[in-house]
Amino acid sequence: MKKEEFEVLIEELRALPQESEWVEFKVNNSKPDEIGEYISALSNSACLENKEFGYLVFGIEDITHKIAGTEFKPKAKKIGNQELENWLATQLEPKIDFKIFEHKVNDKSIVLFQIDAALNTPVSWKGEAYIRVGSYKKKLKDHPEKERKIWNMAKHVVFEKEPAIKNITGDQVLKLLNYPSVFEMLNIPLSQNKSAILEKLIEEKLIVKASSKFNITNLGAILFANNLKDFEKIERKAPRVIIYKGNNKLKTVKELAGTKGYALDFEFIVNYVNDKLPSNEDIGRVFRKEVRVYPELAVRELLANAIIHQDFSISGTSTMIEIFDNRIEITNPGKPLIDTKRFIDHSPESRNEMLAGFMRRMNFCEERGSGIDKVIDAIEIFQLPAPEFIEGDNYTRVVMFSPKSLRQMSKPDKVRACYQHCCLKYVSGDYMSNQSLRERFDVDKINYSIISRIIRETIDAGLIKEYEKSRMYVPYWAG
Known about the structure:
By secondary structure, this protein is an alpha+beta fold. About 35% of the residues lie in helices and about 25% in strands. A hairpin with a 2-residue loop joins strand 12 and strand 13.
């Protein structure tokens, strides 16, 4: 934390009307065990108070909030052979991040412990969890109602609302975010007044006011960052495109990583992917034209879905588009929230509702619940094998395959296509029949029995069922 940010934060904490449950002021009391107990208490209390951090501050009087300075030097203090910071970290469970900052304010030394709020479970010190009740530190087990509330509060952490960068000026906001694009993509006239621009960014929850300064939210940064590298927490969340030679990952031909916010880079990446995909020459009556092997709508919608439904809590990975000779794989971090078999009919459940809503407003993807339907429809029109939806340990993957004849398709390919076609018919208010499936596979009526066998295999797989002995078929989940 830079000195300027440090000074702004200290002034904000000092301006609090009284010692808050997520802030503790001290002067020189630096007993190691007591510090550990306070880290536990402040972390748990910050969770209850919907704060990102709790703070333990040395060098400020606890009643007057006057700057007194401190003689405490935590980075020089050792417990046995261990540095204090490392010793404290080993006694906390679960492990949480806390940082120690030391700066001078008004020529007096101030030490600040910035402690992450508890998430998923209360934080304990040497096996005992603590909490703040007013300005007092208490054992959490003596306040079971607060412990229950911590578990409930942990479930409501919203990634988009969290700060990507804090305590910056309005001019810095306008430098880091491509604010003209916000107005353009929302079809709003761009104001020439800086205050009005900032107010609009606040209204759209892209930034929040923080005392006299601003925080850029994760939503603002992930959508409109001029350069994602300016935001340490999300810089590795840019989509990546990798093109391979052949059908495996042994030889990479080209790799591209996005550098800007999704709203700025989305069209570029979609166009880049489509330009790198194979095409066939269609000879019409007058002109020859290039026709994409894969439907552009499907590429666009699947990429948007991968971006929207990713789990941002999984670090070190991002949305990936991998292009092979015989398929495209689009992967996002995070297990799907619904069964992959229900992607076609089920209203999507998104981890990132604010991000999803903003991208729909900007027309980057279809309305809720219609996107995957249109992907399957487009793939059927292009007579491609049915896409495969895969749930991994910590990822979701969609695979689109290049053209295959029915003879070249495996049994799982045929069953999957039959099931998806049946779902598409049902959500369109219709029923699958032998005829509709023949049309989907482009099979002549004379080969009726081939399609009947595929239908039977799909029934045996438990994916479809006959509707009232009518030789019409519905998905297994249909009422």
